[in-house]
Amino acid sequence: MVLLRRVLQKHQSIRGLLGLQFRMMTSEAGHAGSSYTFKTLKVSQASDKVLHVELNRPEKMNAMNIALWREMVECFNEIAEDSECNAVVLSGAGKIFTAGIDLMDLGGEVLQLEGDDIARKTWNLRKKITKAQETFTVIEKCSKPVIAAIHGACIGAGTSLISACDIRYCTQDAWFQIKEVDMGLAADVGALQRFSKIIGNQSLVNELSFTSRKMMSDEASNCGLVSRVFPDKESMLQGAFDLASEIASKSPVAVQGTKINLVYARDHSVSESLQYMATWNMSMLQTEDIMKSVQAALEKKKTKDVTYSRL
Ligand SMILES: CC/C=C\C=C\CC(=O)SCCNC(=O)CCNC(=O)[C@H](O)C(C)(C)COP(=O)(O)OP(=O)(O)OC[C@H]1O[C@@H](n2cnc3c(N)ncnc32)[C@H](O)[C@@H]1OP(=O)(O)O
After folding, report:
1. Which ranges of the sequence are coiled-coil (predicted)?
2. Alpha-carbon torsion angle 281, 167, 49, 53, nearest 10
3. Domain holding 11: CATH number?
4. Could you read off the pLDDT tens digit of each residue along the chain, which spans 311 residues?
5. CATH number at residue 210
6. Does the CB atom of residue 125 touch ligand 1 within 6 A?
7. Which among 1, 207, 230, 241 is least surrounded, fewest beta carbons within 10 Å?
8. In this predicted complex, what is the ipTM?
9. Nearest CA to ligand 1 atom 57
């Protein structure tokens, strides 16, 4: 506490010397231009600064059709720009989280080869696969933390989807299946690339990927794929919303900087990541949020009692 007080005093005196005023900044950005109107996704405001995105094809087990692949990108690009949103909960409407790719599309449009010769056909297929990968990478690129709340089945492309999320909660009845091998293909939209970074057990990842075996919630929890298991969907969603609200109440400069640096560190060496961090914070340490947060800590207040400017 003494240290905090000293930091605050020093910060205040420097600001005083510079003649700066401690002020609340408001921005007119926020929801301007955000519509969140989609055919396959339902987006609602769960609480202050928290959005709830639901995969919304319950009659088809939230199978991911072409519209859903596209709308996920549009949705998370909007969220990335929405300064009224600080955290997201992603779940599935209806009986299960998702049955993976819409098999009607896989047999049709997805595998259709367009082009006059083999080079052009494969070129175009590569473009399609890269575009499909973006559907989940967009979640990782969005600086707002995304909590996946999974109930029932999470199959095929669904496992790639959750691997791009920052936190995973599930219900006791949840199960996970990297099913692509049983469909005759190698999973190509993120599960193979991200699972070993999450689980840290390559043998288990290989086993799941080669066999398509179902992994139940207890194993998913033990191996670290999910961080909490709840008895049912209702309690899981409540847990996810509570967590999202807590995250959303904190400094967006701190939280979003943390996500960006965690993702960077996952893909780079410690020394590269430390350099990136130093460069990041040489600007971000100049935020007013530090002053506000330290002051709140000194006054034994919580971050939810602090008003941070939107980001
Ligand atoms: C570039 C390539 C990129 C990505 C590739 C990804 C590959 C994958 O995702 S592989 C995984 C594919 N998915 C599956 O194999 C799952 C298939 N579905 C099921 O096994 C079951 O439906 C179930 C999820 C276990 C649920 O079973 P149940 O409760 O008995 O429901 P159903 O009666 O089977 O289904 C209800 C309704 O939903 C339709 N449906 C279910 N899954 C899909 C799907 N993946 N694609 C399209 N439609 C699906 C099913 O046909 C039913 O529709 P009706 O119109 O009512 O008949």
Report:
1. none
2. 130
3. 1.10.12.10
4. 444 455 445 555 544 443 333 222 222 334 545 689 999 999 999 999 999 999 999 999 999 999 999 999 999 999 999 999 999 999 999 999 999 999 998 778 888 889 999 999 999 999 999 999 999 999 999 999 999 999 999 999 999 999 999 999 999 999 999 999 999 999 999 999 999 999 999 999 999 999 999 999 999 999 999 999 999 999 999 999 999 999 999 999 999 999 999 999 999 999 999 999 999 999 999 999 999 999 999 999 999 899 999 99
5. 3.90.226.10
6. no
7. 1
8. 0.98
9. 60
The answer to whether the beta carbons of residues 29 and 83 sit under 8 Å apart is yes
Distance CA 98, CA 259 (A): 25
**CA triple 35-39-43, angle to 5 deg:** 50
Domain that holds residue 178: 41-248
Q: Residue 55 Cα, ligand 1 centroid: separation in angstroms?
A: 14
Distance 165 CA to ligand 1 centre (A): 22
Query: Which has the closest alpha carbon to 142: 303, 309, 263, 38?
Result: 263
Q: Which atom of ligand 1 is nearest to the CA of 110?
A: 1
Distance 119 CA to ligand 1 centre (A): 32
Tell me the pTM: 0.91
**212 and 173 belong to one structural domain:** yes
C-alpha angle with apex 72: 71 to 77, nearest 5 degrees?
A: 100
8 A C-beta contact, residue 253 and residue 311: yes
